[in-house]
Amino acid sequence: MRIAILSDVHANLEALQQVLRALEHERYEALISLGDVVGYGPLPNECVQLVADAASNVILGNHDDALLGRTDIRDFNSYARQALRWQSTVTSPEAREIIATYKPYVALGDAFFVHGGPRSPLDWPYILNIYDARLHLRSLQHDICFIGHSHRGIVFDQKEDNKIKHYQRERIELEEGHRYIINVGSVGQPRDGVPDASYALYDSGERVVEIRRVAYDFTRTQKLMQDNDLPEFLIRRLQFGE
Ligand code: ZN
After folding, report:
1. Ligand 1 centroid to residue 151 C-alpha, Å
2. What is the Å distance from ligand 1's center to 206 Cα?
3. How far is the CA of 101 from the centre of ligand 1 (A)?
């Protein structure tokens, strides 16, 4: 089975459309969104609708949850808070209804899909280093876990002897006996120094994960953010991917 995986669209329609265009040339049986369709960007309604049309499974992120008023935005930094406050004034009842159907996690075959991490997913944990990864691998019932949330594509790879290494790689050939946590990066607000949208393709038969990058016209997203007085910091970071 081939599964397309994307995460952290963050209301960036231009980036989402470019990823979906790239996927038109791919064969896949399922498309999974790992959460944070909203937050930060200028077009939340359009992104919620497009993800609903394209994805077979949509997982809840902390920004999605906060937009529904369930996760407290006082935990967010001031830029995230400001963008989310504005988004909550423009989000349609239809989009809210769709977001309310997002799941905390999904398991499919030998893989587990979640926004932050498999250990208490709705506390929105970050997996940033091997110590975090070890904790979450202990809670994980599956061999492979796909995550988003930090906006940085990174692989945590645990061998049979429990040693964990981490790396960034475009093509990951899954090894027998290893267990993995793989961050697919962000579609709408990458933070690894590259502005291109990030997504992944997982082939469970071939046991290969590919992390793909696709350029998009971020100036169009920036212009829409300017028109809506979104924070300058959030506008600028898109062109640097940080
Ligand atoms: Zn996010």
Report:
1. 6
2. 29
3. 18
- Write down all domains in the chain, each with its CATH number in brackets: 2-240 (3.60.21.10)
Question: How many Å is the Cα radius of gyration of the chain?
Answer: 17
| pTM reported for the whole predicted model | 0.97
- Over the stretch 84-137, which tens digit does the pLDDT of each residue have? 999 999 999 999 999 999 999 999 999 999 999 999 999 999 999 999 999 999
Instruction: Report the C-alpha gap between 213 and 187 in whole angstroms.
Output: 9
How far, in Å, CA of 201 to CA of 28, rounded?
Answer: 8
Distance 174 CA to ligand 1 centre (A): 26
Query: Locate tokens 């690894």: which residue?
Result: 192
First to last CA, the chain: 33
**Which residue type is seen at 190?**
P
Ion ligand 1: residues, CB within 5 A, are: 8, 36
Q: Which amino acid is at 183?
A: N
Q: How many angstroms separate the alpha carbon of residue 177 from the centre of ligand 1?
A: 31
Q: CA separation (Å) from 129 to 23, 41, 166, 172, 176?
A: 30, 27, 8, 18, 23
Phi, psi torsion values for 202, nearest 5 degrees = -115, 120
